[in-house]
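[Solved] Which block belongs to which protein?

Original post:
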Amino acid sequence: MIAAEGLVSAGALLPVSVLRSDPVQVLATFVALNTLMYATLAAVKILPRVQRPAWLNGRNRRAQDRSIYAGRPADDTDR
């Protein structure tokens, strides 16, 4: 147990002075933000997609009639 405490206080692979340096702190911040971003993206991908109501979107109508019965009113189709 004493050996493990010595490794933690001294840094497992690198000395404490290197771990406390500015470039390592910047790298640690980048890794933390990157991890949060990917965790958020993973959570969003798992959640079901939210569908907006049709009345909210004004682009739900075509500018031209794309029917095979072009020129006829919509109620005049064969049944």
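(Second protein starts here: sequence line, then its structure tokens.)
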Amino acid sequence: MAAPRAATASAKQVTRRNFAEAVRELGAQLESCDYVAVAAQKTGAPTGWRRALPVDTAETAYLKAKLAAESFQPLQIAVCPFLLRKSSPSTLVAYP
């Protein structure tokens, strides 16, 4: 019996710039897949140096709050469609 091969894959990073393309690609993969794995996780939190301090001016406090809001990621979602190979049912193909 042959030793199992290590899986090599990397996660696709979806940003504002490639969101539309990533959604189209995911839609096509979802239509042809056999299984889908989904994971969601709350992430991100503003760090202490961005909090408004009593000595901050209104403008500084606003800019700190704006920077914290822009960099805060409240939710990460991972979706991975799987396809069973017809020629070898024990082989999964993942589309990370």
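Accepted answer:
You had them paired correctly. Confirming on the second one: The chain is about 30% helix and 20% strand.
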